[in-house]
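Tokens for DnaJ heat shock protein family (Hsp40) member C16. Go.
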Amino acid sequence: MGSKMSVPLAAVVLLYILLAESTHGGPEMDPYKILGVTRSASQAEIKKVYKRLAKEWHPDKNKNPGAEDMFIKITKSYEILSSEDKRANFDRYGQTDDTQPYGNGRYGHRHDSFYFDESFFNFPFNSKNHRDFADSKYTLHFNQYVSDVVPESYKRPYLIKITSDWCFSCIHIEPVWKEVVAALFEIEQGVVDVGYERRLANHLGAHRTPSILGVINGKVTFFHYAVAKEHLRQFVEDLLPQRLVERVTDKNDLQFLNSWHELNKPHVLLFDQVPAVPLLYKLTAFAYKDYLQFGYVDQGLSETANLQKQFNINTYAPTMLVFKENIDKPADIIQAKGMKKQIIDEFMANNKFLLAPRLVNQKLFDELCPVKQFHRRRKYCVLLITGDEETFSFGNQAFLSFASTNTKEVVRFAYVYQRLQQQLCDILMQNKDSAQSPPQVVILERRNAAGKALFKPVTAWNGSEEDKQRLVEELERLQKDPSILIHDAMLPELNNEFASMFIIRWIYASYDYLSEVIDDILHNNWREMMPLLSLIFSALFILFGTVVIQAFSDSSEDKQTKPKAKDGTKAENGSSGSVTTSSRPPKKNFVEVTELTDITYMSNLVKLRPGHMNIVLVLTDASKNILLSKFAKEVYSFTGSLTLHFSFLNIDKHSEWMSTLLEYAQDTMQIDADEDDGGNRKIDYTGYVLALNGHKKYLCLFKPVYTGEDLDSKSSEDEGGASGGRSRSSSRDDHPPRKSNRSRSLSTLQIHHKLDRLGLWMERLMEGTLPRYYIPAWPGLEKITPSK
């Protein structure tokens, strides 16, 4: 009985355990154990461990079969522990799936219309094949982008996808991306993983995932529309510059084909039934834009019927023709229903040059006449040196005819205009006087990239049969004996004859760039626009802030000038205008000077605003008119500064103030007292100029220098030693100088010349190179007893 009861009891217990496990489910994984961190680990520790494990187990670097599964677990664990909410949910309920409701496990794994199963997103990590690494061969790195993608973008556009791990939106666009890339196989593609190439993503300006962008001519353009095949195809077409392909009809076909001489290029015509130019043809035109001119003929238009009839075009398949110098007969032709990119590239590469192109720049010269390589056959250039005048047209046409009938793999024919490539022609023709020479044919072989070449002038060329026969014989001799090229020289770099066309190209490029900028402004999100907006608003703030501060500064100074105008005196300013009384510098044809008195002393010196200086001229009643006029002329060019104020001090009234001021600074300033042997002579301060900084309590001193001619006396005054502006008498010390009309006129002349070097001194003052003499305090002007 006991044994019979034990079997059902064991079955019930086992069923209960199975039901409990199926109900509670338990956690599928423990993120703490996977990352190898404790439950108390900080976010910084978790992040550090995650970076190390992600690098170690990344499937691109770790070839272990289980590396992919481990990498997924590491990433999922970090996603849980890096989120405070998910981490708290796991710590409380042991749940790793954020789609489960918190709390009791009896709700199980709910997958109704609200809680989506990950299979709804076609998430590749949950499939048996795990993650799709098909994009790995297109992955771009920063160095690869700079060294390969950017240079190649000048020949073909790039379509780049910005993605990252655990980006659900990236997975949504993946099918469309693969379909577009497969359809546009001629487009170069690239993939940037933000998690591993953050530097490249920032360089491209991609701040969100997913993003799609195009790179052409080194410029980056973002795709801003819904990810659909038609939109992406149109985006690629919009990347290409305008005017790559010209539409040709019966009206403009001759104009298009005849431009070969001006553009120095073969011309390509594509005949097709579709009204829009095929994308593959546009991409080909962009890749070979430097070599060929492209046109498109829509066979469905009645305006192209004559062209189709003239060249016998088959309407059932696209036809491509190449025209060189002969516009009546194509030089080459291909026709096929499905033109492949490889076939088109080979067709273009075989027809990049005219039969006898003109050397217009160094790049063309390097390709037509390449430098000799040891592992290749020799390449020779037959060069016609001619002119562009009408008189040379017959010989030029004869040379073209000769080139078309004597085409060889090792020989290239070209011509050059002597007037446009004078240096090259003088060397090859051994012309020393640079005069215009008759046309001549030269055979040359380039030996190195530095410009060394072997050459031989063959014959003067006028297009006669004798000239052609002589050239044929020389070419036959050259095949047998290359040593007939007896001359060698260093060839100069060719002038770029199409340099003037760069202006037109620059205008077109500017227009395209402006269109892209406007498009970016209309579609960019705020995060991408923030640097540009910050720069614009900073510049506007600085600009308008300066204007506002200047306006308020001017208005405040206008108010201060009114009470000070009563205390000023006026002096004449020679040719520059009058010297009026005010502390505000004028902006017109006069200088405003204020007399420094006990009334204006505080405002014009002691309480002068920081950064402002008062330029004070020291004078006497007798020299007032002469010195003020000279002073105005010398300082007039500095009156535009709002920090300079101009005043004068009457030394007859305030001589003791001047002496006291200089005594305060006697420790740092040596003053020549101009004393005689007795030491009783008094210093004459007439003509001194003081630059006084009232706020910082220092002064700069100008000592008068007489530069006029004096027949009876000599002056040894300079800025380093003051002689008081008086010339020393040439008479003996015990005989005082005589006073006469001549001496009075000389004295007046000397006073006038005391300020001759004031302008130079002012320049040094503005530069801040003058010595500064600091004083403890400004002496009071009202306390000094006037003396005369």
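Residues 379 and 410 are 5 Å apart (CA to CA).
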